[in-house]
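Q: Two folds, back to back.
A: First:
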Amino acid sequence: MFEHVDPFIGTDATDLPEPSGLAATWWWPKPQVGNTHPGATYPFGMVSACAYSGAYPTGYGRYDLSTEGRPPVLHDRLVASGFTHFQQSGTGAIRKYYNYFRVTPMLSPLDDLGQAWEIVDEVAQPGYYAATLASGIRAEITVGPKSAVHRYTFPAHHDARLVIDFSLGGLDIPYGRTIPLRAHLGSVAPGCAEGEVVVEGAPLAVRVECDAQHWRQMLWYDRRLMPGGTRLDFDRIRPTTLRPFGLMWAGPTEPGQVVELRFGFSLRGVEQAARTLEHECGPGPSSFERRRATTQAVWREHLGKVQVDTPSSDRATVLGTALYHSLIKPCLAVDESPFWPTPGPFAFDLSTMWDIYRTHLPLMTTLAPDRAVELANALLHIAEEEGNLPIGYRMARGADRFSRQGSALAHTFLADLCALGLPGVDWDWALVHMHDDLRRTYGEEFLLHGRTHPISHTLDIAFGYWCSAVVAGRVGDLTLVEQFGPLAARWANAFDPATGLLHDSTYYEGGRWNYSFRLLHDMASRIGLAGGDDAFVAMLDRFFGFGADPVKQPGLLPDVDEMAAGYALDRFEGLNNEPDMEAPWAYMYAGRPDRTAQVVHDVVHQQFGTGRGGLPGNDDSGGLSSWYVWATLGLFPVAGQNLFLLNAPAWREARLDVGGRALTIETTGFVEPEPGGPVQHVQSVHLDGVPLDRPFLTGGELHAGGQLLVGLGPEPSGWGTQHRPPSARAPHVDVPLPRLTRP
């Protein structure tokens, strides 16, 4: 899928065709922009690099602070004041974190540092970004896991410059700047320098080399050169005392002269940064093409794990880009924790578990199980050193508000890994941290009173006990399994029997309707609480807008009344937001796979597109994009339950590399789908030639590979209406399933 990736998708405000039918009834409360960036990245790598305008929220692009509706414009055209490192991918509100070590190629005095030039002729591929500044300088950037290589092509000039600003970070919006706490930098040798800046409590070290022969190498402070100076040290920096500072190379250029910069980064000091630079980029000069080729080969390997048969280049582009966006985060940086001295796995840019636990982490587990195990161990290291499993985790110190989003979400990820039996995790050790984590924050109130508010955390914690019971069963701690059973059943305390919905409470970015259709471990009882299949389906139909009038989406800077009226619709948010991403599959537990097929069809073919405005909302570290990958394959992971629900694929044929095994998804009766066109319904399923009446696969079946043959037709059939996805009142490791005997 490498050739089909367009990293520019999601970088502009949503620009999709006017929705029709069911999709026209869905309401989008969150910003209508993908918040992605087109910069150079490495799969699950620590470093990214991109043009920097200071715009919200990645530092790239044209938009100002946006939390709902259409994003307001900060710049009327694409501009850049340089090229920075470390960006988020699709998140909603990171602001001051990242965008460090800005590199600015200049043909003017240092006083002009910070000026923004228009950028044109942008090119972006996985692992590569290029753009030309209005000054006439061409910039190209590639990255490794912990490194970056820049290549600048200059016009003729008597005193060209490459300026690295060590003091800059964050965004060019109110309260969006990073103020370094302390810093030091110095020249090591001609063409070589190193330094460290403590930003948001994290020490970020760099070793940088420049291959411009005969250029002058100088430090600068407050836009003034320091001829002969070899070192700058700042023990304490306050916002009122901060003056920009950094490093510069300068000299004459001939037309088309190329200058290369190589960066090695580390969170553990300049010596480790130097080793990283040598390991990933080798000795200079001219390592750009070698680093680019290596990184792009890794991207080809990762992106090749999903292949589809489609005559539509546009649809292939949407899928390829969605897969790409799903493989950027989180950052896995072994032996790089700046917060504790022990070696081992380390991860950051979990932004956040609330965004990624349903779809992104199951995709990571499926396509890159070794990296999933690495992430699991990194989470457990964080829990051991800091006392809890994180909801969000950045390259920064300090508490944040991510705990408001959810509780015990890492437990779903760990439970799936445990149920699959993937090697490399000490599950006795994991169980200790999972159990401890459930008793913190909202967990104490849950234990004392049977539920907690926000009420959605009651569902989180109850399911966390279910997931912990899976691990307890694996390690043979039957006492804990028995203890966790009644606690896992407390999910029912979150619901109001009079309405079949969650109790009134405060909700994070949504309402009780958005949170009421979570795929619980005991969906049979949940449906019974709502009054049975018919009543539950009627509630879902109302939520998804069957028979409802089209709605108007929030515009630019919507006021309180406009947003309140939208929330009062109690409507599906159409993948513009996270809370109800799994709700379309709730129909399957009530015997209505036809309804799931209708909703998913309209999301897939009306809420995603090509071009910079091709996403319906924040991509949120690949949470949105990974939903698209799963949905188009006709699969959906039930996080924490080691299950994959089946639906009509959007491709005639697809192939997945599942941990080194091939899973092919083939169809009969397939018709190329169209936006607003007819829905295809599953008529039959065969797994390795054996009929499959149940509408799901276990994780073990999916990870074993094989052939899934899906028969499709234009009308609903009886398939999937009798054998429902499993529900279980008491937690245990293996849910009883209809026996499947393969030849």
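A: Second:
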Amino acid sequence: MHADLSRLTFRPERHYSAVIAQQGRVQLDADTNEQTAIQLHQTRTLAADLIGRHGGPRDAAGFRIEYVGGRHEIDTLYIHGGRYYVDGILCDADRPAPGVPVPEEDAEEQEGAEPPAYWTYWDQPDAHRDPEKPGDRLPSPAQAPFVVYLKVWERSVSAAEDPALREVALGAALPDTAARAKVVWQVLPLSLAALDIEDTDPSKEDVREAFDRWAAAQSAPSARLAARSERPDRSDEDPCLVKPDARYRGPENQLYRVEVHAGGAAKDATFKWSRENGSVVFPIEELDGTWVQLASLGHDDKLDLDVGDLVELTDTAYASRLEPLPLLRVEELDLPGRRVRLHAEPAPGVGRLPHLNPFLRRWDHHEGPRRKGRTTKLKGGAVPLAEGEWLPLEDGVEVYFAKDGTYRTGDHWIVPARTATGSVEWPTDPARRPLLQAPAGIARHFAPLALVKGEYGAVDLRLAFGPLAANVPAADEATLAAEEQARREEQAAEDAPSDGGSRTTAEAEAAAEGDE
């Protein structure tokens, strides 16, 4: 999550069930966030255990796919409303109802229009498909059949992307408050060839089994990273040394974020890093060539922009598409006008639509690590990735990418650095050697929805579950009736006269009838 955090402390292998607040103690964001993570983990694990890898409620299962081809200028899908769970994560496909505006003066009041019962492939809220991009289009009828699947993941949303999160009563001089985590669902096509299916008319079971194998390969990242803090060369000459034996030499506590920029094999992959967990962002008001008009600048020198900084100009659409964009360098600052000039224009189609809330995200690398006495040249503004060697970031912090990894855009690792210890917080073995770790995110989840056969329609691949509640069995009804009769007889006995006298059989029967 790109958020201003102190650190992330949730570890499912520790089996903590709750965070216990203590009186008179400092409250940290990490404690609150760990409690949220514990609850989410418990809830989603329970849902996945009961439902399975994916499924929807029998009477309200969402994401029914309807293929619409040949009747429009471009093929599309109808994604019908309802709910569906993928690895315990709730995905809601219902369209929100539009609001009813106040009518104009002397105009008749009109009722709000009913929302469509479905999304389409092109207007689904988080996929941001573009008909002008051939790679976004659905396979042609000649390429049918193909699988339609659901991709689910989570990303952070700050006030830069959703201005409604900002409390305007706090004023523009104060920073925003809490960020949000958002479930992103995307309905996408997949060819049978990608599933290694040669049959042109496969069964449901064959498609589901092949898809499960494909999804397992997509979900499991092969990239691994370790981090450490080493005492840099010539450290004795630094007058700002915090501790004589310090290895991390930064003046402040930091949360470093190392994130894959361009994915692929190691020879093609790049990464970027931030000492603020990638949380330094600037909402954009206007884009004019290489000049960018910002809604606000940073609140202090640590959270501001400077000439030479590398920034990522993006918006909600590209943040959801997980596609790397070239990082741009700040060439000039106009502080009174809240404007910055970049060394090149942003990519076409990015940052120019206000409703997509464009913003700049600052990254803190300026050049690649030095190798053999030379500084590594950046590629697309990001650092070329090298495996099997320690790569310095800054102030003694170093990272190591394991060999033979495959990298995905958005995968990231979090490295807390602390001045109190002069080191970074990273798991080690008993010999204090840093351990290689899988990415902290992004966790991707997949579920098959339909096998589209072109003009022959679509075969539903979803799974459904029924409610657990059911009618009380007849045998139990008889048992309950007998228990009720016994209770009434016992109550009648307690209500009998206590003078020691006895009642006749006729009197007892009359009393029982009166109770009935």
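Q: And?
A: The chain has a mean pLDDT of 89.
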